[in-house]
Specification:
There is one protein chain. The protein has about 120 residues and is an alpha+beta fold. It has helices at about 55-65, 70-80, 90-95, 100-120; strands spanning about 5-10, 15-25, 35-40, 50-55, 70. Strand 1 and strand 2 (about 15-25) form a beta hairpin.
Length: about 120
């Protein structure tokens, strides 16, 4: 059984409130879970203590048992010092794709040709 530490949504429409739960990866987002280990209220201020309520001992225990946190939960765990999140950097993703690179080369060639014509 593959376990995930993830967010389960609660709250009204346009008023999100999340529970931090340990659940089987095959279960739906708001479905059955093994244990609730905390809450997260994104509408509260960043410095509000009630924004993130987490049982750190339970979180550490589940991580030791092999539960995999989702990226958002890993960010939250990193903010309270339970787990370390490695910074992601994918410079390849920011590069233009093939067609855009071809257009860029063509534009540079046209600009060089125009500069040559104006110089002559």
């Amino acid at each position: 059984m593959s376990l995930k530490i993830r967010l389960s949504r609660a709250g009204a429409k346009k008023r999100p409130f999340y529970r931090i739960v340990v659940a089987d990866a095959r279960m739906p987002r708001d479905g059955r879970f093994v244990e609730k280990i905390g809450t997260f209220d994104p509408l509260k201020a960043q410095d509000d203590a009630a924004r993130l309520v987490l049982d750190q001992e339970k979180a550490k225990a589940w991580l030791a048992k092999g539960a995999q946190p989702t990226d958002r939960v890993l960010r939250l765990l990193d903010s309270v010092g339970v787990a370390k999140r490695e910074a992601r950097n994918n410079p390849e993703k920011a590069k233009p794709k093939k067609k855009a690179q071809e257009r860029q080369v063509a534009a540079e060639a046209a600009a060089a040709k125009a500069a040559e014509a104006s110089a002559a």
